[in-house]
Specification:
Two copies of one chain form a homodimer.
Chain A: E1 3-9, E2 13-20, E3 25-32, H1 36-39, H2 42-56, E4 64-71, E5 81-84, E6 89-92, H3 94-101, E7 107-111, H4 112-123, E8 132-137, E9 141-147, E10 150-151, H5 184-187, H6 189-202, H7 218-226, H8 230-254, E11 258-262, H9 270-283, E12 292-295, H10 302-311
Parallel strand pairs in A: 1-4, 4-7, 8-11, 11-12
Antiparallel strand pairs in A: 1-2, 2-3, 5-6, 8-9, 9-10
Chain lengths: 312, 312
């Protein structure tokens, strides 16, 4: 039996998975992400954890065929990471460094959202499709594009940065990226909360359960919308409209078979995919056969599955 | 010496090119597009013209390695064309039909804009780049996407339909496709004329040379803009702003190396690429390394070059 590791590096924790070469997840665990000193310890912590697991599982080093790793930032086709804001990394080849720490084992690196898309394509909500776009609606909005079964990293590592496509250039508020009107400003967990807050302010006469909820969350907004709350409903509708617009423009560019919606916000379920699809239809009269919409199924494991797929 | 044919089927004329297998254009000519009876004669006219050329050039049929053909409509990866509005075609496999008319020679079909992109990638303004997006600004706006040297046709044949990405959902006027605020409504020759007309109406006090020009053209608008005409300048700026937005969103999806601007409107030259690039920069603060912008160089021959490339 041979093995590989799939690793998903996040800003708070690193998720690790041990897989056999059939792609079965044998074990998964987490370690904290130590971001101090520009994230200098992250790769050595990962290497130590991988070595511990190899010892624990009595695996021979020669049985490890590779390590895949997803990182939260742009990755060029050469594996170069110019910057990872959430980790403190700058000007780094994480694959080369991790490989050196693991006695030269083959390591492949990808952007975390692209890698998650690969996971959903391989073992999740997009199985059986070779042309897939994943949108991960969490604190931010991540994106991943798979064409012909291959991740589109992009020439400069910015492939699938769908959270920052601009859906409303007139937005006065700036996005974290410095732009105005990015998808992420409306379709993330923080985005839908902010949009709901705006509507509450703009419509002081309209009753809403959200007015009585201190520091309401994205889940509160979706729950209220499902109960028929007008304000919450409008916020959810804004989120779905902008997602419909962004997916329509994406379909008119690369025409995938399926859009997969994942991340914490996607737990809202079919209220989300059905409404996005309604707007997608509206914005694509040109397309006689339309892409499908599906919910992601791997949850937080999409990243480790996709990372393993990088080396299998 | 072996040969191939590259054919570009347009609504008014069919352009044909004879190439050697090194990709050198040996001869080019045109025949009219007979659209009557649902375009039933188009493929037999093409076959007759190809046979005539083979006879004229004393080529042995065995020396013809293939025929590539670009058509103005969606083409699925299987070569199926559900509809070609401009030709009257419906439910057709033009490659199979043309092959049958040419004694079984290999025929490959692509969407005309995608095929033109392939031409510019192979022999034109995008040589040396494997990841290219072409925007053809003519009566409408066509688009073509090349990733890793391969045309992205899309699962349903709608890859590269960049003329219909929505850049202004609030546009009251409908596009030909039925949508509102498509790129084509602002960035085509007809679009920039309409936008200039709108600005003339909205600003009756502002002097403009366009007021004295009956039925002014896109070229008139660009010429006036170059002379400092405020109204014309605003129309050109609108065109460039929306092209900047569309290319920015495209870069955040597939991150190509170069955007190539072609079609009649691109004769305006660097005034166009420089202004588009200015807006592209504005809309992509996330991208530390940016795509380049270049003008197309093959003009009306991009289609026959790209079609030849389909079979070489």
């Amino acid at each position: 039996m041979n093995y590989c590791f799939g690793i998903d590096v996040g800003g708070t924790s690193v998720k690790l998975g041990l897989f056999d070469t059939e792609g079965n997840l044998i074990d998964k665990w987490e370690i904290p992400t130590r971001k101090e000193n520009g994230g200098a310890k992250i790769l050595s912590d990962i290497a130590a954890s991988v070595k511990d697991k190899i010892t624990e599982k009595k695996i021979d080093a020669a049985q490890v065929c590779g390590v895949g790793i997803g990182v939260p930032g742009p990755v060029t086709p050469e594996g170069y990471v110019p910057v990872c804001v959430n980790l403190g990394w700058k000007d780094i080849y994480p694959g080369r460094e991790l490989s050196a720490l693991l006695s030269g084992v083959s390591v492949r690196v990808g952007n975390d959202a692209n890698v998650a898309a690969l996971g959903e394509y391989w073992r999740g909500g997009a199985q059986g499709c070779s042309n897939v776009v994943l949108l991960t609606l969490g604190t931010g909005v991540g994106g991943g594009v798979i064409l012909d079964g291959k991740v589109v990293d992009g020439v400069h590592g910015a492939g699938g940065e769908l959270g920052h496509v601009i859906v409303n250039p007139d937005e006065p508020l700036a996005c974290n990226c410095g732009s105005h009107g990015c998808l992420e400003q409306y379709a993330s967990a923080t985005g839908v909360v902010r949009v709901a807050g705006r509507i509450l302010t703009a419509k002081p006469e309209t009753a809403s359960v959200l007015r009585e909820t201190k520091d309401f969350s994205a889940k509160d907004v979706f729950d209220a919308a499902k109960e028929g709350d007008a304000i919450a409903n409008e916020a959810v509708d804004t989120l779905c409209r902008y997602l419909g617009l962004a997916t329509a423009n994406c379909a008119l560019t690369i025409d995938p078979e399926v859009f997969v919606i994942g991340g914490g916000v996607s737990r809202a379920g079919s209220i989300l995919t059905e409404r996005i699809e309604k707007y997608f239809e509206k914005y694509t009269p040109l397309l006689k056969i339309k892409a499908k919409f599906a919910l992601a199924t791997l949850g937080n494991d999409a990243g480790i599955y996709g990372a393993a797929r990088l080396v299998l």
